Records
---
Amino acid sequence: MSEEGDEIVLQLADPPNCPRCGGPGPVSARFPHSWTKASGEQVPGIREATLCPVCDRDEPAADKLLAFFAVHKTLKPSELETFHSLSAAWVAVARARHVDQQQLADEYERSRNGEL
Ligand SMILES: [Zn+2]
């Protein structure tokens, strides 16, 4: 993909655990994400989201993708189109949520470092 700064990478093999609850999920996505510091400075970066059966429950796009994984244990070529449209919808939701996730990730880091 060559769309400037908008490359989304899905990871199906051994995705990282959910950053919110630490549980496993069937897929994760990495996407460009910039955020604004308190100073107003723009910080470009990459964010990662894991589709989580616990945290993402009741979110329609996530539910559809989770349902897809529940039915399709492996991804067949004929199902790629469905998978792509479902995952694109979920990634769009995950990206819209990035501010809270950034905050949670920061808090997680701080709690790991014993600062909380
Ligand atoms: Zn979770």
---
Amino acid sequence: MIPNQWYVILESREIKKNQLKGFTRFGEKIIAWRDNNGTLGVFRDRCPHRGIQLSKGKIKDNRLQCPFHGFEYDTSGQCTLIPANGKASQPPAYIRANAYPVREAHGFVYVWYTPDPAAAKIPSNESLPEVPWFDDLDDSLVASSFTDLWKAHYSRAIENQLDVVHVPFIHHTTIGRGIGPVVNGPYTKVSNNSISFWPLNEEDRGQKPLRPDQIEEAPKKSTYITFIFPNLWQNHIMDSMRIIVAFVPIDDNHTLFYLRTFQKMVKLPLLRDLYFLVTKLFNIIVLGQDRRVVETHQPQATSLKMDEHLIAGDHPIILYRKMRENLKDGKKMQDK
Ligand code: FES
Ligand SMILES: [Fe+2]
């Protein structure tokens, strides 16, 4: 995991008012719950009193109540009542559930991931940067979403979506039909926290592929892919049609895809539902084609130096590995 980043972990609609849900993210047991004002709390799923899972508790009087000795917590994680000490006693400030900084935006729940379990060392929510999102995705696009669970490390799941070399092979019956195997470039653009690239595959007519520095027109093409660290991806198929994926790390061997299809061409409600149903079925088939091979990767997690022989067409994957390493070390990439 890259520490000190905003990760998408859920969709907001998954946690309703007065509801709690336990789940696993980053290999850790986590609880998310909403009070009746709609405020969301996301904690490591462990009561600071004696360490049992808070997700076995309940919401009582707008507080999360631990089932074991009834300690109560607000959405910031602060303990507000220790029943054994009586209502007249104020719980000490240091009795806090281990809360993640949390934000809700674009229909997603983001948490600020830091491996340091000491809540006191986690920065205040206000001092943190904006959550990552796509500048070129406006609100006029309508979305439909579904999830897909892969038995794969998140780095493999992400790299698969940065792989322009595989498309004519794995997807020869779907999105790869008619796509040539020769990979020009790909032309890439990098910012501090994102990679964009333009797939420019073509048929093999005996030509050598173009190097990235021989390509100038790529950014004028409407189809491009953007990955924003740590876990968001967009296929900008055209202005009126996009696919985004949030790759949510469950543990070292599982990644949950939150896939959304955006479009603004089909406006009639019934036709729109039909459009989303057909694209969902199509995307399930395409993801299944990927998953079948990605789940067989050895080793599961990728790293900068590993026993693979990457080629020029794998450039976005190489960039991803380098940037991930730099971000882990707290360095930034130069704009290019
Ligand atoms: S373990 Fe939660 S209140 Fe004691
Ligand atoms: Fe694919």
